[in-house]
């Protein structure tokens, strides 16, 4: 396995990796009884979770990640990308997920427009994206890497430890990609407001995850904290 993918797999098993999914699953706790598309499904963690109560189709271009899937439930796993997405009929899904994908995708405008095509009327598109301000906070506070923080402030891009260069985008970019389609921003929620700023040693304490989950959920929909969270969870409704 590629070393970056191996590191990413190990991340998902760490307390802070588990906390990411715990927060995301709570934010998606009303997704039940739907037909769901998970685009860029990675190791299948979210697809597996949602397949307990939904009909899930997962699309992932990286076959190596699919081989390491966490799949325990029955969902339809497809290896591929945009071309596979184009095979689905209009209004095929109630919910579309795209989590930490657009930062690394070359065809993100075309992918997003396909989401708007395949989603049903009143359907939900869930996008989790890197938040520029949150990454700068982490660079300064956790990593003490002032040089890269300044690079980001000046409009530069940096690499993710696991997945390569992060190409940042914002809400206005999403709206531009979807011009001509009727959709609204229902809400923006924060993920990883605090835990990415703490020393990793404390994160191994048994009570850490429960306490951090409580505070993260309390601030996840307060704008001042959303603005500085490492990830933003953007919920769109068609």
Tally the helices: what do you get? 11
Structural class label: alpha/beta
Strand order of the largest sheet: 3-2-1-4-5-9-8
Query: Could you say what the CATH architecture is?
Result: 3-Layer(aba) Sandwich
Q: Please indicate the percent range of residues in DSSP E strands (runs of 2 or more).
A: 15-25%
| Helix content range | 25-40%
Question: Number of DSSP strands?
Answer: 9
- The H/E string reads HHEHEHEHEHEHHEEHEHHE
- CATH superfamily membership, which one? Vaccinia Virus protein VP39
Low-confidence runs: none
- How many domains is the backbone divided into? 1
The shape, in one word, is globular
Structure description:
This protein is α/β, with parallel strands linked by helices. The chain is globular. The protein contains eleven helices and nine strands. Helix content is 38%, strand content 22%. A seven-stranded mixed sheet has the order 3-2-1-4-5-9-8. The chain has one domain: Rossmann fold, CATH 3.40.50. Keywords: Methyltransferase, Transferase. Its EC number is 2.1.1.-. InterPro entries: Methyltransf_11 (IPR013216), SAM-dependent_MTases_sf (IPR029063), Thiol_S-MT (IPR052356).
Task: Write a concise keyword list for the protein shown above.
single chain, 238 residues, alpha/beta, Rossmann fold, 7-stranded mixed sheet, two-stranded antiparallel sheet, 11 helices, 22% strand, globular
């Amino acid at each position: 396995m590629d070393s970056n993918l191996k590191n990413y797999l190990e991340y998902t098993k760490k307390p802070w990796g588990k906390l990411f999914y715990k927060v995301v699953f709570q934010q998606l706790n009303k997704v039940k009884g739907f037909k769901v598309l998970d685009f860029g499904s990675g190791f299948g963690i979210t697809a597996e979770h949602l397949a307990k109560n939904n009909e899930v189709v997962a699309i992932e271009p990286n076959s190596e990640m699919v081989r390491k899937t966490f799949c325990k439930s029955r969902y339809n796993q497809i290896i591929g990308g945009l071309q596979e997405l184009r095979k689905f009929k209009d209004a095929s899904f109630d919910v579309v997920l795209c989590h930490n994908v657009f930062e690394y995708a070359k065809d993100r405008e075309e992918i997003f427009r396909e989401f708007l095509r395949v989603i049903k009327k009143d359907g939900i598109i869930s996008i989790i994206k890197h938040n520029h301000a949150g990454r700068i906070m982490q660079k300064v506070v956790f990593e003490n890497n002032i040089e890269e923080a300044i690079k980001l402030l000046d409009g530069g891009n940096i690499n993710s430890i696991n997945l390569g260069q992060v190409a940042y985008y914002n809400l206005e970019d999403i709206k531009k990609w979807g011009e001509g389609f009727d959709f609204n921003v229902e809400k923006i929620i924060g993920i990883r407001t605090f835990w990415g700023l703490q020393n990793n040693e404390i994160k191994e304490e048994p009570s850490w995850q429960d306490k951090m989950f409580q505070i993260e959920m309390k601030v996840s929909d307060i704008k001042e904290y959303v603005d500085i969270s490492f990830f933003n969870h953007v919920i769109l409704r068609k």
